[in-house]
User: What shape does this take?
Amino acid sequence: MNQEDANKITSYLSFRLGDEVFALHVSKVHKILGMTEITEVPRAPAYMKGVINLRGNVLPVVDTRIKFGMTPSEKNKSTSILVIETSISGESILLGIIVDAVQAVLKIEAEDLLPPPSIGKQYQSEFITNMTKVKDKFYIILDMDAVFSSDTMLNIKELVDARESVTKDH
Amino acid sequence: MIPSFENFQSRFVEEALDNINELESTLLELDLSPNDKELLEKVFRIMHSLKGGGGMFGFELLSEFSHHMENIYDKIRSGQLAVSSKLLSLTFQSVDILRDLVNVEVIESPEIKVRYQEMVTTVENVLKEEIQVQKSQTVNEGKLTSPNDIPEVTGMATWYIHFYPGAHVLENGTNLLYLIDELGQMGPLKAVPRLLNIPDLEGVEPERSLVFWDLFLSTDMGKAAIMDVFIFVEDDSKIEIQRLSQSDLFTQPQFIARLDTLCENKLEIELADLSEFMVDEPIEEGLAAPVVFDQLGQTSEGKKVTSSSIRVASDKIDGLMNMVSELVITQERLNVIAAQHQIPELKMVAENIQKLTGSLRDSAFSISLIPVESLVTRFQRLVRDLSCSLDKKIAFTTSGTGTELDKTMIESLTDPLLHIIRNSIDHGIEMPDMRKRKGKPETGSIHMEAGYSGANVIVKITDDGAGIDPAKIRANAIEKGLISKDDVLSDNEVLNLVFAPGFSTSKEVTEVSGRGVGMDVVKRNISAIRGEVSIESVPGEGTTISIILPLVLSIIDGLLVQVNHTQYIIPLALTDRIYSIGSDVLKDGFINSVTLNGIQYPFYNLRKELELNGEVPKRYQMVVVNHTDTRIAIAVDKVVGKIQAVLKPLGRMYHDQKVISAATIMGDGGIALVLDTNSIVKELLNPS
Assistant: This one.
């Protein structure tokens, strides 16, 4: 999908991590898989959960909860792996991310997209593309390229704070 | 595919590029032996066919330009001009512009027209100059002759030409009758067609050439001119040219009469029948050895064998490799199913398919391998051009260039090697007078050596230049902050600092090397293909840079082992033997060493080193791995069996992962991790 076509699409997929809900543009999401057996690769950062077989190819899988500074994912009925496309130093790669639950597809028009809080680094706003409000609920739209290009761990608390600061302003 | 003009054109471009590459390597040979007649002929012939083909396929500039060059080489081979380094340099330059002139996109650009004009002017000037210079030299040195050359007799002579066209000579559109017409324009000609080989009508294949000729020609133009007529067909044909007499025999009615009777009565003419006319020719042993240009399947200097090779687009090979990979995965799946169902017939079929996939895989691999030799011409050219511009004398030699590597690897190796050689020329080899003072031969040497070593390919570049002084490296590294003053490093460690990022010994940036990209880029490029690079140097004696590349193939035979529930693969080619020992043996002891069957091995306990928790088994399996003559034992829980593994990269997210080089999809859909034994040995023996 080229960028122009992608921009016309106003659908976003929302998913839950703990109590927080995030959204991703659907053009970034390739597939949604149920939780499966993951082969651990030794000597990797803790958030690199391992690799799985995606139609004959090896797909690295990230434990998003660990990356976001939460307790490791546990396998239950709603746990899913989102296969997303990210661009890391200009190279497009497929990545599996474990989320607690996939929620819904949201329609968000361009005018409903709010800028990330500009109060600086303390909210880790470099990982946030936009904030948005759908039916009085606020969502963070994540910049997955930035999240996975960096080795730094995210802090779920700061992300929540960022959302709340925007919530207050509106 | 419908044959169209575009098709022919692109085929011509490919052929022309081949020709130009051959021209370049011929010139390099010619540079070493400027008097070699055969090489000169080759250059001339290539220019000639570029000219002809260029005109035919709409590359006018190419055709015109090669015409200029052809003229020069015509003068050289006829002895009017000698090969000089100036002329050779000019020809080398022309190689570059010739390459551009067959590039359809480039010829459209206005710059090329300008460059073309400049080049033509240069060619004309150099030619004029050379003629002037060499004339004055000739006066001093006497007559200019090239060796191995029979002094060309000008004046009337009668020639006997036996022309036996190859069967396929008509396929490129040659009309043989035109050739004979052309001969006829050179003087009185008697052409006797021979129809011996013509079969019955139903056996005639219209595309094959069946006729051969005996030709008698009187001309004052010499043998070279006769040979020129056949220039487009001589590769496929048998051509013998023999001088009968140094006069025009056609003026003698007896000769004509004799010819007529001979032709009617005899199926083949023997020169002995004409001996009475050959009075003025020295005939040794009854018959002078004719000059034979016989190239029917013959090898000239081991090169240009009429080998039946074909060109294939590289994406077709990639496609083939992908399919073979898929097949191997599917075949492993079949193995799993066959093992689950104990059906003898199924098992037999599965085993057969396994054998077939194995050999299919091997032959598919061998297709995608390219010998290192394909790089050599570029390096020779670099050495020649650069040493000329730096006024250094350098001989570039190679050995083991038959060593084959994957084509992508060859591609990624080119730039690092160019850089290393450039460094050797610029920093390594000293100026000739300096070398003399040091008691070395004036001509420096750079040697490239390639060879296999176990599961590796080693490429070494050795020069006999100034070498590297570790003290200087050390000082520079301290200055750059790479090491501190108090660090204790061996000379070897110091030398290898040149690969550190931000290290460049050259004080000033020269045009040749040190353009900001240094040895760290070489190292990075080589690491990218999982290779290693190291340097050895003796001050005053020279430097050797070795590149060790894993013979990484995308499919390997592997030994499947297991620790906890995860399966790992060790390349089967590297495994020596497997021993079983009690796990308590490895538990205590400070040194990582174990005695197996009376031999001591350093060992690598996969469970411990990879920090895999879980229950320690009662017995470990010790897999002995042989890595470039170093043997180590790897401790695993269980050896599962043999597997053909299609290697899949782990990707960027695991780019820091050294011990695991790839993963593979198993027959049951699971994943096994491929161990990089190179890294394991290195980690075990040089812990840092």
